[in-house]
Every structure is written in C-alpha cells, then in structure tokens.
Specification:
Layout: H1 5-28, E1 33-41, E2 47-57, E3 62-71, H2 78-91, E4 99-104, H3 108-111, H4 117-124, E5 129-132, H5 134-145, H6 151-165, H7 168-180, H8 206-220
Parallel strand pairs: 1-4, 4-5
Antiparallel strand pairs: 1-2, 2-3
Helix pairs in contact: 7-8
C-alpha cells in the first residue's frame, strides 16, 4: 500500500486511531487505571495535552500504557485542562470511580494545593493517589544545585552544541574522531533550558571533543574552536 502523507494522516486519525480509542474505552469501563498528563504548544501555537493511561489488561495479562491526546482551545488554565480530560472520559462513558491515580509535573496549574488539576481530581475521585513527576523534581534539584557552578560551565556546553549544529561537515569530522577513539558515534543533543541534566549529553564524548577542537584550532585557527 502506497499513501501520501495527507491520506495516511487521515486514515490514522479517523480510522485506526478512532477504532483503537473505542477498544481502549471498552477496557477502561471495567478496569481501574491511573492517568498521567503533560501539556505543550506546537509550532502552530496549538495547545495540546497528552494523556497516558496505565491499567491492567486482562486480555494480555500485563500492565500496559496507552497514549492519547486532546486539544485545549482555550487558555491553559487548570479548569480548562481538567475539563478537557474529563470530557474525553465522559464522551466514552468511562466512570470516574475507575480512576485511582494521577501524575503530572510539579507546576502550580497541575499540582497546586488549590485550584489545580490535581485538587479537582481529589474532589471528583476520593482516595485517588496523586504523585508529582520524579524526573521533573530531580531536574529542578539539579538545576538549583548547579547554580553554585560558574556560568562558564553552561556557556561551554551551549557553545559546543552551537559549533556543530549548523555544519554537517563538522559533524562528520567529529564522527571520525569518535571512531578513532573506539567510541560509539553519537549525535550532540541540544542542551535543554529546563532540564539541566541534559547538559551531560553534550559532554559524553569528552576525549573526542578535546581531540577534535585541538585539531580544529591548530589547523584553521578558528576563534570559536580556541
């Protein structure tokens, strides 16, 4: 079967995706489950909220994850996010009594004591287990701890990524240095603004980086390489 992207997207969204949601809804009507969610805004400024559901599937005999998404047309307030999630369950007649857990990042909209998505779930689903994202909390701790480091450390990491990101030639040359040192060739990842631990991804091949920049500086006398 050969399809172009518009028809393929239409089939996935309106046929296979819809069918899968119907099957999932039937299972959730008779199973206890927990939900995790995170919001984002795409390049077209469309607000989205991804919802992941974890439950025990009797058919497969194991705990499974299922992903879904919903569009949030209004401002991303706690009320709108909560109503968007609730609307999805109501459309498929999934009872709220089956929701036993909720997880999200630690922002105030999601996890605030009052007027948040979590507080609304506590009111709607008595006894629900609410948990903040552990990874998010660890990154925040790392970010606060690393404020005691000189700013030059973070600048170095970002400058290294900037040196490679727009040059396919430099990336190919760096790969040769990785192979020479018997290292697994890896692409340099963009250091995240909100995930300080992502900085280490830029420096995983430190020996290859030192060798590459020494050669670059000595051969081309590039100020940024120096």
């Amino acid at each position: 079967m050969t399809l172009k992207r518009h028809k393929a997207r239409a089939i996935v969204s309106n046929v296979t995706g819809t069918s899968h949601k119907e099957v999932l809804a039937k299972k959730l009507k008779h199973a206890k489950f927990s939900i995790m969610t995170d919001e984002s805004t795409d390049i077209g400024t469309v607000k989205n909220s991804c919802v992941a559901i974890r439950f025990y599937d009797k058919d497969s005999g194991e705990s499974v994850y299922e992903d879904g998404d919903l569009n949030v047309e209004k401002a991303s307030t706690a009320e709108n996010l909560y109503n968007g999630i609730v609307k999805t369950f109501q459309q498929h007649n999934i009872p709220f009594a089956n929701i036993i857990g909720f997880g999200a990042d630690g922002c105030n909209i999601m996890m605030g004591v009052r007027n948040s998505v979590a507080s609304r779930f506590r009111d709607s689903c008595p006894g629900i287990f609410v948990m903040k994202c552990v990874c998010h909390s660890v990154h925040i701790c790392a970010s606060e701890a690393c404020k005691n480091l000189p700013r030059a450390c973070e600048d170095l990491v970002r400058n290294i990524y900037g040196f490679f990101k727009l040059s396919a030639k430099r990336q190919a040359e760096f790969k040769e240095f990785q192979v020479f040192l018997n290292l697994e060739p890896q692409k340099l990842l963009h250091p995240s603004q909100t995930r300080w631990l992502s900085m280490i991804a830029v420096l995983e091949n430190w020996d290859a980086l030192i060798l590459f920049f020494n050669q670059k500086w000595l051969s081309e006398r590039v100020l940024s390489a120096e």
